[in-house]
Structure formats: structure tokens, C-alpha cells
Design goal:
Layout: H1 4-51, H2 59-73, E1 77-85, E2 91-96, E3 110-112, H3 118-125, E4 130-136, E5 143-151, E6 154-160, H4 166-190
Antiparallel strand pairs: 1-2, 1-6, 2-3, 4-5, 5-6
Helix pairs in contact: 1-2, 1-4, 2-4
Length: 191
Amino acid sequence: PFADQDVRLLERFTEVFAFAYDRYLELRERDARNRELQVQNALERVRAQASGMQQSADLEAVSLTLLETARTLIPTIVRDFVIIDQEGEGQDYWTASLVGGETPTTRPRGQVGVFTAAQTNAARADGASYFPYTETGGPHYDDVYGYRVFHEHGWISFGSTAYLADTDVGVLERLTEVFGFAYQRFLELAD
């Protein structure tokens, strides 16, 4: 058995620990709320730019804003950002990149040969919201963890220097959903 003094000390330690843990939970909840506000504001910025598109060429600016937003929200996003439209025999695509710390730029829209992405297409057909993959031995980074996040017309491919937590993949899914709206607007303006 413990002496009364030892019991009081353990009780006091338990009280202090419980107080500290409650405070930790409060701070964690506050951080989660702040993060959600940050994500919502970023999504609204992209959504507003997409809503303001006046011509199909405006998709380029929306794409760059989306990449910059992804990079702001998830700093490990570094590499090619690809938007794929799977209609027809090939795919239309745009890319923007932060490789090597460059300012994001886009490459011209163009038809490319059928993208060899059988696993990606199979995941999409199975109803997955994204397809993760890894590339090794790139010119700028040893490993790139890729996430092809699907939208109605194709996917957006994000590259990260670190494996992403589910919450970060959720952010990419939400960004892709907003991009789906922008891409639909692009198709309407292109007609």
C-alpha cells in the first residue's frame, strides 16, 4: 500500500495531467477548425476564379491558381500538376510545375497518345476517388509520391516529396472537385 502522502501526490499528478491533456485536445480542435477555414478560403478563391472565367483560355490561370493553392495548403506538393481529359482517342492535358522551385508555368494544351495508365483507369472504374503511385529516381527528387485524383472528365495528378496523410488527400479531393467545376466551365466556353 501507498502512504497517504504518496496517494495525494499521485492524485495531484493525475489532476495536472488531465488538465494538460484537456488543453491539448482543445488546441488540437482549434487547430483543426483553423485548418478547415484555411482550406475553405483557398477553395473559395479557386471557385471564384473559375466562376469568373470569360473564355476557355482562362482555364490556364485557374490551373496555376489551383497548383499554387495545393502548394500553400500542402507544402510537400512540388511536381507536375496534370489535368487530363479522357474524351476521344487521346487525352487533352495541361501541366504546371514547381520542380526546381520554378514559378508555375503551363505547357500548351494538346493531344497526346493514349496515356499508359491502366491501373489508374481501373481504379477510377472501380469507383476510387484517387490512385496513389510512387516514382523513384527523378531528376529533382529521389522519390515522388503521386496522387491522381479523379474528376468527371479525367484526373489531376499531384506529386509530393512525402507520403500524404488522409486529411491532405482529402484536401486534394476537394481541390479537384472545384477544378471539375472549372473544367466544365471551360467546356461550355469552348463550344
